[in-house]
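Hi support team,

I'm filing this because I wasn't sure whether my run with zinc ion finished correctly. The job status page said complete, but I'd like someone to confirm that the output block is well-formed before I use it downstream. Pasting the exact inputs I used:
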Amino acid sequence: MPPKHKADEHASRINYLFQAAQQVVQSAPMLSQHYGEIITLISEKTVAKLDYTMKRSMCKKCKAILVPGVNMSYRLRKRKHRKCNPTMVITCKCCNEVKSLPTQPGRKLKAELTTATIS
Ligand SMILES: [Zn+2]
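And here is everything the job wrote out:
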């Protein structure tokens, strides 16, 4: 059944491209990177927000889909102060772009907090 609204169509296209990019990231990394560029273009043109898991698994510089052990590495970097939590440093092996994400034990993202309730 085709989607009823344009937004649904864009979301399904982005989802399809993301899944396709994840499938071909090992065999055809350039194709995966191209899919990442298309995902970024669609989300920019349609002003659609990407899911946080999708956003975190894409390189901002080269638009590659990051898969641990294939084209990315991650490590925890300790902070100078003991009280501060370590940061997770993600390195893209395609373009050597580094991004760091804060970690906090027990902290959940906003998207994780919203729960579906069935009444
Ligand atoms: Zn990259």
